[in-house]
Design goal:
Blueprint: E1 11-20, H1 25-33, H2 40-50, H3 52-57, E2 60-63, H4 68-74, H5 78-90, E3 100-101, H6 113-120, E4 124-125, H7 131-134, E5 138-146, H8 150-161, E6 166-175, E7 196-201
Parallel strand pairs: 1-6, 2-5, 5-6
Antiparallel strand pairs: 1-7, 3-4
Length: 202
């Protein structure tokens, strides 16, 4: 049984280690879809360097979940692997199964912002029995690729309803659009050399 425990609405901080572009796409997709899970050893230090301030404020790390059917097919959740590796490096607790994806959606790769927002609406929840685990705590949501913010915004709403005081987002990569001029486009930075940062309204 799932239930909402509380409700708030506010902006969250979103940061990514690298830009998702022609230079980074190939190795990120290999990690995501081609079983190159060994790449997490390279990616996690980049994320720790880029998200140093967010990690300092976080009480717990929570990965963006996959629907169980997609997890069964893929055999691993890439966001979960990143969260565990980042948590180990930053010495922060990780709650891999706290946030659940209860609504299966089609792949969002070609969807625009409005369509993405509609597809992931009410797709995530925290089981009522897990609400005490994040009540009054600051959550750092971990994802592989930040595209429009629709998925992370839906996750943030579910976490706040469950009692989290704040939710920030740390991703491996962020899709850089032409309108976002301040974000550096670097495919493979050395540790701590590249980051993207934005505050997103939920």
């Amino acid at each position: 049984m799932f239930a909402a425990c509380a409700a708030t609405s506010q902006a969250y901080r979103a940061r990514a280690a690298i830009a998702y572009d022609d230079g980074s796409r190939r190795f990120i997709l290999a990690f995501k879809n081609a079983d190159r899970t060994d790449a997490v050893r390279t990616f996690a230090p980049w994320m720790v360097a880029a998200g140093r301030n967010l990690l300092a404020d976080a009480d717990v790390l929570v990965p963006v979940p996959l629907h169980w059917t997609r997890l069964f097919a893929r055999k691993y959740n890439q966001a979960g692997l990143l969260a565990q590796a980042v948590g180990k490096l930053a010495v922060k607790p990780v709650a891999v199964d706290l946030l659940q994806r209860t609504k299966r959606t089609r792949k969002l790769g070609t969807s625009g912002p409005r369509q993405r927002a509609r597809l992931v609406r009410a797709a995530f929840t925290v089981p009522q029995k897990r609400c005490p685990d994040i009540e009054g705590r600051r959550v750092l949501l971990i994802d592989d690729v930040f595209t429009t913010g629709s998925t992370t915004s839906a996750c943030a709403r579910a976490l706040r309803r469950a009692g989290a005081t704040a939710v920030d987002v740390l991703s491996l990569a962020r899709v850089v659009r032409a309108s976002v001029m301040a974000v550096p486009r670097r495919a493979a930075p050395s540790r701590g050399s590249s980051e993207t940062d934005q505050e997103i309204g939920v």
